[in-house]
Design a protein that fits this description.
- This protein folds into 3 domains: 185 residues, Rossmann fold; 94 residues, Rossmann fold; 87 residues, Immunoglobulins (Immunoglobulin-like).
- The strands form 4 sheets. The chain has a 7-stranded antiparallel sheet with strand order 13-14-17-16-15-18-19. Strands 3-2-1-4-5-6 form a 6-stranded mixed sheet, sandwiched between helices. Strands 8-10-11-12 form a 4-stranded antiparallel sheet, covered by helices on one side.
- A hairpin with a 2-residue loop joins strand 11 and strand 12.
- The chain has 12 helices and 19 strands.
- It is an alpha+beta fold.
- The protein is flat, with a radius of gyration of 50 Å.
- Helix 1 runs parallel beside helix 6, helix 3 runs parallel beside helix 4 and helix 4 packs parallel to helix 5.
Length: 506
């Protein structure tokens, strides 16, 4: 806790509608509020938490050193030295606090700066830069402003530090804000895991409750002093279900959910509907005069009202569905002192019913009740329709209603036959096969032409062409000079003799 203890904190800057940064005295001093808030904030921490209080005026000094949550005597002794004096120098406030936090092994490290923002020009902008640097180290910064002061200039510090900003216009809420911020900063307020609720209070809601399924998450909170905690959850025994009186009415808080994220195991729980119905009924105002009852038949809600005054002329009932939509039903008199009416339920869940007696002077409350529609009609068991089953049996040649012993007795039954004309089907198949055959034949002829060659030459020409090509590809052997044969020589001799003979004859 870094608390501004400068002279300006000794005054109250809380004029309603005040917007500038000038100081207006009067009221409870901010120093007293800071002291009370620090005491309550430290008291809200757990014993294994660590806390320190840093006082800031012209310099930063430790009022309570960073340590495990000290005793009340140590806290009171340290805070008793807080006196408003000197100027405000916030320049070293975050760095001094961070030096101590770096020595701690805590998993969560947080600084809460409590100041009115009256400091040197430019100091707040530098603090925003310091807060951004600390955020990278895992140290977050929140700011609680006091009075009017320079609240608008303090907000960027909280934004840069990854924390929260509280304007603090209402100084009476400062202690509560410090407690809230301390609790949030000291632990993770979103808790997820497997948690089993514990019954800690008696009420109509928990009277018949013996056990519940686990919940897979909850929001960590603290119960206000006027609240009655009925169920707790987690290792820290945080309130799960709490109720308190608010004026003439009652408020109820449930810190988990009833949906499919954290409460999915509750959706299959047999006591789910009864639990929520009783919870809603206990929260709604109860009237001593008259009596209102509800009956759910299928998806129809029947409302019965018995007013104390039998001369009542008119009763109206308002039905509120789970989505918050309301419908008004005028009840009709069915007997002396009894009024009834009905309405169709369109949404599953708890429906609140409130009845009022309507007179010329106005409406006065008669009573209330809660009706639950658990499931949609398609999931609801509607019984067995014997008539439809017998008609189905007769239409198919069956025996109608029989005993279980006759189920496998074939006496009186005729084998079932079924005739189906296949002419149209076969003709359709034949036409389809014909088209397929034509397509395949054309595809085959085209394939023959393509496979045979790129041109449509006759086979003989193609053969010659291939043969010629083959011959051309054979290399020629070197030619040898022919040797003269004996036979040729003999022929030459004979010819010479004949020529000689002819010459002589001549």
């Amino acid at each position: 806790l870094a608390i501004d203890t400068s002279e300006s904190m000794g005054e109250c800057h809380c004029a309603e509608g005040f917007t500038d940064t000038s100081r207006l005295p009067g009221g409870v001093t901010k120093t007293d509020i800071a002291r009370a808030g620090a005491v309550r904030a430290i008291d809200a921490l757990h014993a294994d938490d660590e806390v320190g209080v840093l006082g800031i005026d012209t310099e930063a000094r430790w009022l309570i050193d960073l340590q495990r949550v000290p005793s009340a005597d140590v806290v009171n002794a340290g805070l008793s030295t807080v006196t408003p004096a000197g100027q405000t120098d916030l320049s070293d406030s975050l760095t001094t606090a961070a030096e101590a936090l770096r020595q701690s092994n805590a998993g969560l490290k947080h600084i809460i700066l409590f100041s009115d923002g009256f400091t040197q020009p430019g100091a707040l902008a530098n603090l925003a830069d310091d807060a951004a640097d600390l955020l990278e180290e895992g140290i977050t910064v929140s700011v609680v402003a006091t009075g009017e002061g320079a609240a608008r200039e303090l907000e960027p510090i909280a934004v840069a530090g990854g924390g929260r900003f509280y304007p603090g216009r209402d100084l009476t809420r400062i202690p509560e804000i410090l407690v809230q911020e301390s609790v949030i900063a000291s632990r993770s307020f979103i808790n997820e895991g497997d948690f089993l609720p514990t019954i800690t209070g008696l009420s109509p809601v928990t009277q018949g409750l013996t056990a519940t399924p686990s919940l897979f998450g909850f929001v960590a909170t603290t119960a206000q002093p006027s609240a009655t905690t009925l169920l707790t959850i987690g290792d820290e025994e945080d309130p799960l279900l709490a109720t308190w009186q608010a004026g003439l009415g009652r408020s109820t808080a449930f810190t988990s959910d009833a949906g499919m994220r954290w409460g999915q195991a509750w959706a299959d729980w047999d006591g789910y509907v009864d639990f929520w119905s009783t919870l809603v009924r206990d929260t709604f105002p109860q009237f001593s005069a008259g009596n209102v009852r509800t009956v759910v038949d299928g998806d129809e809600l029947r409302i019965v009202a018995d007013p104390a005054d039998t001369d009542t002329a008119r009763i109206d009932a308002v039905v509120t569905d789970p989505a918050g939509f309301t419908r008004t039903v005028q009840l009709a008199r069915t007997a002396t002192g009894t009024f009834e009416g009905s309405v169709r339920l369109e949404r599953p869940g708890a429906h609140a019913v409130s009845a009022s007696v309507v007179t010329a002077e106005g409406a006065s409350g008669l009573g209330s009740d809660v009706a639950s529609l658990s499931y949609s009609a398609e999931y609801r068991t509607t019984g067995v329709d014997i008539a439809v089953l017998e008609q189905l049996s007769e239409a198919t040649g069956g025996r109608g209603g029989i005993d279980a012993a006759q189920a496998f007795d074939g006496a009186g039954l005729e084998p079932g036959r079924s005739v189906m004309r296949l002419t149209t089907l076969l003709l359709a198949l034949a036409a389809l096969a014909w088209l397929v055959a034509i397509a395949l034949s054309r595809l085959w002829l085209r394939r023959r032409v393509v496979v045979g060659g790129e041109t449509s030459q006759p086979r003989s020409e193609q053969a010659r062409t291939r043969q010629s090509a083959a011959v051309d590809e054979v290399p020629e052997a070197p030619q040898k000079q022919p040797e003269p044969s004996t036979e040729a020589e003999s022929a030459s001799t004979v010819n010479a003799l004949l020529k000689s003979k002819r010459d002589r004859s001549t």
